[in-house]
Amino acid sequence: IPNSIKEEIIELFESFPNLNKIYEIYSKIGEGTFSSVYLGKERKVSRFNNNHDNKRNKTSSLVALKKIYVTSSPQRIFNELNLLYILRGNENVAPLLDVLRYEDQVIAVLPYYKHSDFRDFYRDLPLIGIKNYMFDLFQAIEFIHKHDVIHRDIKPTNFLYNPFTGKGVLVDFGLAEKYEPVINNACPCINGGFNDEEISKFEKLSVYPKNGYLKDDQRPGRRANRAGTRGFRAPEVLFKCNCQTPLIDIWSAGVMLLTLLSRRFPFFNSTDDIEAIMELINIYGTIEMKECANLHGLNLDCNIPKMKNKISFSAIIANSILMDCKEGDTFAEDSPAWEILSVIDKRGRIIDNKLGNEYNNAIDLLEKSMELYSNKRENAENLLKHEFFKEFRT
Ligand code: ADP
Ligand code: MG
Question: Among residues 258, 365, 232, which one has the least CA distance to residue 317?
């Protein structure tokens, strides 16, 4: 390990007087916005105070020590630890083993999960791997949603997957929250329906390439929880809906599935929410996006031409797989890749794929997860019953 990390570990031991007695630390395994994570092992202290037993105990297992930065508010730290505590007992959710505190410093202790960096496998994870990945992810989500917890930050770095064992574990409840339904001043999506007159009174959100803004509107801007990571935010989060439900996590899981199927990461790459809305317009078209904005009490004004209609996920995925094929590549049955993979319309555009049943099951699951209208999106429990997961049915 590099000297800078060694120094960091020494500093950590210095700032945490008792840590050294309880844990050994070997290396640093992660660094996020709100924490540093180290690989360590518990020292087993003998009941008989025998010095020999004080040495490394080979049977104790590896742990991840997550040092939460002191810049996080105490409420935030408490929230994360409390939710982790509530969410014990599912093999796809990392349980909290212990918490250490010294003055304002807090370390959460979790089991260590051996995993691969997403960037090292997303390009070549076979469909069976994608299936294992998504099944474990949806199992984790189903579990936390049963406990009324919204994760809010479902994305590859927070889902530790081991491609060799096919196991995945959800971590990082730093942005998670208890779901509490909004009753007063709720977003129109709660009722699902509204008429044209109501729509005309909605706040106007203008989406023009390069400068989206709220035009001619004297009302105070909308406020809503937007915590999460760009590119994984559900449309209702982008539209600042104040009735966000656990289904925002399903959308993010859908984006992960899209990433794996298209073998493009990051799939969405916007610098702000308006750009993120434009990226969605690119796929769903202006007609559906306006409708979605209406659902959340916004009037979407958009001057992007030629983007009225939706592009199918089937076409997106066939296209991206084709783009990765080299000339002369053959797919199943020795046919040229493009012939096997795509259905082309009169103008030579790919409109569908011939990827086969398994792929199409995956694409159907994708469409259900990335359902634009939050009131129509299915929950994890139902998605786990999807045809794509038939092998896992008990
Ligand atoms: P942050 O809130 O800073 O994003 P995370 O909990 O996501 O913190 O942890 C940051 C990184 O540390 C993760 O992306 C992962 O690479 C690594 N990590 C976290 N927990 C574990 C664990 N239990 N086992 C192995 N690696 C972990
Ligand atoms: Mg994280």
Answer: 258
Model confidence pLDDT, tens digit, residues 174-183 = 999 999 999 8
Q: Which ligand is nearest to the CA of 171?
A: 1
Q: How far is the CA of 110 from the centre of ligand 1 (A)?
A: 10
- Tens-digit pLDDT profile for residues 199-221: 888 888 877 655 545 555 555 66
How many CB atoms are closer than 10 A to CB 341? 24
Question: Distances from the Cα of 361 to the Cαs of 165, 254, 314, 382, in angstroms?
Answer: 23, 13, 11, 14
Distance linking the first and last C-alpha atoms of the chain: 45
pLDDT tens digits for range 293-303? 999 999 898 87
- Dihedral angle of Cα 382, 383, 386, 392, to the nearest 10 degrees: -100
Atom 12, ligand 1: which residue's CA is nearest? 30
172 counts as catalytic: no
Catalytic choice (153, 273, 324, 352)? 153
Tell me which residues have their CB closer than 6 angstroms to ligand 1: 29-30, 32-35, 37, 64, 66, 94, 110-113, 157-158, 160, 171-172, 174
Q: Which pLDDT score, from 0 to 100, does residue 327 have?
A: 66
CA proximity to 250, closest of 166, 150, 181, 168: 150
CB 155 within 8 Å of CB 209: no
Residues 96-108 have a mean pLDDT of 95
Q: What pTM was estimated for this model as a whole?
A: 0.90
d(CA 160, CA 97): 17
Residue bearing the CA closest to ligand 1, atom 22: 112
| Spatial distance between the Cα atoms of 337 and 354, rounded to a whole number of angstroms | 10
Ligand nearest to C-alpha 36: 1
